[in-house]
Design brief:
The chain has a 3-stranded mixed beta sheet. Helix 1 packs across helix 2 and helix 2 runs antiparallel to helix 3. It is of the alpha+beta class. The protein has one domain.
């Protein structure tokens, strides 16, 4: 395969349907392209499991979230789905000036499509994520990245969380969350 093609490492495979139809192969290539363009960090405390830098070039996944879960006896790595979600969400907010909630809804649908395309139960995946959203939301924030984009938290008017993150950034320690609300 020539190295000048658009996918030198993954040659095109002829699809049985037109390539503009939704297909698992095209979705996998799209996710792989996103993964090549961003930097992943898993060493920080990130409210609600994942977030992105202000410039969108770094995706943060909370350091407490396990990298895998088991679905029907199969070990599933979760980073690629969260990265897809965060990259889509950030792009929609920055490029189309969408409100966080609208961008989040579309990003969740993209994430769900990628999960289902890999023949993973969305219900099992979402239940796994929700378990950690709650536990991560209750922890002390000690290592919040200085360049974490705070727009989603501002759009949700989560003033308690914003104050905790600002305190964590300045002192390295933030008080435990007082309210239970999540976006």
């Amino acid at each position: 395969m020539p190295t000048t093609s658009c996918h030198p490492l993954a040659p095109h495979r002829k699809l049985r349907i037109p390539d503009w139809y939704v297909s698992t192969l095209m979705l996998e290539r799209t996710v792989d392209a996103i993964l090549r363009r961003i930097r992943l960090r898993r060493d920080c405390d990130i409210p609600y499991l994942a977030g992105y830098s202000q410039d969108g070039r770094t995706i943060y996944i909370d350091r407490h979230l396990p990298r895998t879960f088991t679905d029907r006896g199969r070990t599933v790595e979760v980073d690629r789905y969260l990265i897809l979600h965060e990259a889509v969400e950030k792009s929609l907010i920055d490029e189309l000036d969408l409100h966080y909630l609208h961008a989040h809804q579309i990003a969740t649908r993209a994430e769900e499509s990628a999960v289902r395309a890999d023949r993973i139960s969305w219900r099992a995946y979402d239940a796994f994520m929700q378990r950690y959203v709650k536990s991560v939301g209750d922890e002390r924030l000690r290592n919040v990245p200085a360049d974490l984009d705070l727009k989603p938290y501002r759009d949700e008017h989560d003033r308690d969380l914003m104050a905790r993150m600002q305190k964590a950034e300045s002192t390295g320690i933030a008080p435990i969350r007082t309210s239970r609300r999540k976006p």
